[in-house]
């Protein structure tokens, strides 16, 4: 299964990943602004789904939000708990969150969906829909492209998405897309963020 392979790949390279991307110092200023602005609109608890080393979870908690980080990579959770002892972290899958239906105000999925094959992306999106309150919001960070295709990510194969394609998947999962941003930086892959609001329960 692709996600199991992804977990194993990140476990093998967790130390390297943490050193390069495991702090807010690695965050682009425009990404920080987008996430901060969105987070200020969240009403209720927030889940950082696929929290990695935990720096975003800790940042959100320091902003006064009740934030909880979830990740399937044990090494990330262990690091997050050591480094950010006042924040809450748990091991878990994005496909089956330990949260009651309609209990969460917001979900941050910051590049945590990039390893899902397009045929499997509905599974986490529908799970996000399940746990979000009516009108709760989701912010996704992902790699943008002109088509949906696989590329050789540094850790394990990942997917680029067009904004239209991921928007369509979100709408099918019961979301209304509110806004999107695409950032193109020299010598980097195009990056995108998308904010969506739960509009209804997802299709069966």
Whole-angstrom Rg: 16 Å
Strand content: 25-35%
Kindly report the average pLDDT value.
92
Query: Segments where pLDDT lies below 50 for 5+ residues?
Result: none
> Structural class, please?
alpha/beta
Helix content: 25-40%
Number of helices: 7
Sequence of secondary-structure elements? HHHEHEHEEHEEEHEE
Query: Could you give the count of β-strands?
Result: 9
What is the end-to-end distance? 23 Å
Q: Say what oligomer this is.
A: single chain
Strand order within the widest sheet? 3-2-1-4-5-9-8
Largest sheet: 7 strands, mixed
Shape: globular
Walkthrough of the structure:
It is a single chain. With 204 residues, this protein is of the alpha/beta class. Helix content is 33%, strand content 27%. The chain is built from seven helices and nine strands. The chain has helices spanning 2-12, 14-21, 29-39, 55-62, 74-83, 122-131, 163-172, and strands at 46-49, 67-71, 88-91, 104-110, 132-143, 149-151, 158-160, 175-183, 191-198. A seven-stranded mixed sheet has the order 3-2-1-4-5-9-8, with helices on both faces. Strands 6-7 form a two-stranded antiparallel ribbon. Helix 5 (74-83) links the parallel strand 2 (67-71) and strand 3 (88-91). It starts with a helix and ends in a 6-residue tail after the last strand.
